[in-house]
Amino acid sequence: MIKNKSIHFKERWPRLLLILLWLGFGSQARAQGFLRADGQRIVNEKNENVLLRGVGLGGWMLQEGYMLGINRDGQQHKIRERIEALIGPEKTARFYEAWLNDHTTRADIDSMKRWGFNSVRLPMHYALYTLPVNREPVKGKQTWLDKGFAMTDSLLAWCKANEMYLILDLHAAPGGQGNDLNISDRDPSSPSLWQSEANRTKTIALWRKLAQRYAREPWIGGYDLINEPNWGFTNPETDKNGTGEKNNGPLQELLHDITKAIRQVDKKHLIILAGNGWGNNYNGIVPTWDKNMALSFHKYWNFNDEAAVAHMLSMRERYNMPAWLGETGENSNVWFTEAITLLEKHNIGWAWWPLKKLGVNNPLQVRSNADYDKLVAFWNGAGTQPGAAVAWRGLQQLLADLRIANNLIQADVLDAMLRQPQSAETRPFRPHVLEKNLLIQAADYDLGRNRYAYFDLDTANYRVSTGKNTAGNRGRIYRNDGVDLAAKGNQIYVTHIENSEWLAYTINVAEAGSYKLVLRTANPLGSGIVSVSVNGMQAGARLEKSTEGGTALTTIAGIELGAGLQRMVLRAHAGNFDLYTLELSK
After folding, report:
1. 389 pLDDT exceeds 70?
2. For residue 457, what pLDDT band results from cuts at 50, 70 and 90?
3. At 297, which helix (H) or strand (E)?
């Protein structure tokens, strides 16, 4: 039976859920009791090493513009102002209440556990827990808000039920902790965390309040005090993000004072520090002042070699304290597998970023919709202002698609994070069963590492190391491997095929025999040479073709296939063509 040629996105998540269950991602070993630092390890109360494998809930309490497709003025308060300008304050308030209720639910945490994660990092926005200093009715007093604490209580209950550690991360501190505005929802027209004693006092008070509330909760894995400080204390004009700071005095002092406040009410929980310069500049911060601390590092867009973790290992050994990669991600599956393999080789736990957003390079993808696309185009300066009805409809649909039941589960991302670091084995992306006829979508090549399930020359973004942006999957749709994909209507196809690249497909053949293979291709550059192998042996004649554009059907006859699982590899000896489908028939 020939399958439908189109791939419908809205049908995809339940199919991928079945794939995930079939893959059998196992849960991690149960942890026991409070986490603590034991020399260079993080251990539980049985003194067992605990390797944290987690994901951060970015976008839930704190929106960042890029997660919503917005490429300018991406602070949450700016996004909210623009929504309110289109639909009014009452509907905006309803939108944000629904966002907080539906972004992360018990079902999300249950799924994370089932897939194999053992921890969750919660990026907190202070304004859900306490009023901004300029809104306090009594100067110098702290007004506590129920919303943030109630959300945290619920999340902790879900984590406890799944025996997963919850790490509290102050992602947006009062006033904002850096010049990278989006990550802390900072308003540069108001005093920052570093320019206001009231903001500093509120930050300390918030951590004391949190520690007092959760002091007896062993499934709170730790307190990640300030996410990614990035502030130039000494040379704000030339080093605004603090990557070159030699002292970091104000940061060290604040971290010390937060620790003192926490220890007044909580002697047991692990305290996690982050350096300046987005978490990696620890000048003046170490040696530390508490025996139960870990150092958090953040890692993006660099190579995954020994040099990339040398500073983490050096500091871990020199100061005899654990290292944890508190945030990383936003890259391709190849990069994910490389990074996790490297980290776990050195017993460094990790928290990926984020669980869900628009886009494919996370475990869950939130779909966009046509009305919301009009909003984003307007906000990005590429379209006209939509009417209030269109805006509200687009936002309502976005809220519906925010729920995990309507998310697209990225099976390839989960496979790259949780299976591929331990195994080079390939597996089918979806079942390909050949009875008499079989139509395979070219984008449905096998799951697995580059050079094992496929071979692509451009697989990840290493721009921090190379100074050059590379896309991996240029289309950034459907899958997050290095293979370049594009779409025409509902059909996804492989594009930008280069010389020597190849794709593997595992096929379950009902009846051994000789089959005809038809490739549907587009050849805009007028070249292309391909060959097919089955189980490592050449099958049929090598196909050389030359057309002048458009699409073409090209046939390789006499493909011998045995019964059962067969591995078919399509190899491009000369590229510059697109591949849509592969059809096998008697």
Report:
1. yes
2. very high
3. strand 293-299
For residues 239 and 228, is the Cβ–Cβ distance under 8 A?
Answer: no
Q: Domains in the chain, ordered, with CATH?
A: 31-60+103-365+408-415 (3.20.20.80), 68-98+367-406 (no CATH), 424-585 (2.60.120.260)
Specify whether the CB–CB gap between 248 and 284 falls below 8 A.
yes
And the tokens for 421? Answer: 């670091």
Q: How far is CA 24 from CA 21, 413, 414, 440, 565, in A?
A: 5, 15, 11, 24, 19
- How many CB atoms within 10 Å of residue 486? 17
Report how far apart, in Å, the C-alpha atoms of 329 and of each of 171, 417, 489, 503 are. 17, 10, 29, 25
DSSP helix/strand/coil, 55? strand
Sheet with 408-409, strands from edge to edge, namely 356-357, 364-365, 408-409
How does pLDDT run across 246-300, given as a tens digit for each residue? 999 999 999 999 999 999 999 999 999 999 999 999 999 999 999 999 999 999 9
Cα–Cα dist 145/241, whole Å: 31
The DSSP 8-state label assigned to residue 257 in this structure reads H
Q: What is the pLDDT of residue 204?
A: 98
Peptide bond into 287 cis (omega under 30): yes
Which tokens belong to 420? Answer: 């591929």
Q: What is the pLDDT of residue 6?
A: 34
Q: Are 563 and 512 in contact (CB under 8 A)?
A: yes
Per the listing, tokens 């994901």 go with 55
Please give the pLDDT value at position 28.
41
For residue 110, give the H/E element and its range: helix 106-115
- Report the alpha-carbon distance of residue 505 to residue 73 in Å, rounded: 44
Write down the residue that tokens 């449905």 correspond to.
444
Give per-residue pLDDT as tens, 58-68.
999 999 999 99
Q: Would you state the structure tokens that stand for residue 57, as one six-digit string?
A: 């809930």
Please tell me what DSSP assigns to residue 564: E
| pLDDT above 80 for 172 | yes
Q: What pLDDT shows up at residue 440?
A: 98
**Cα dihedral sign, 75-77-79-85:** negative
**Percent of residues, the chain, with pLDDT higher than 90:** 87
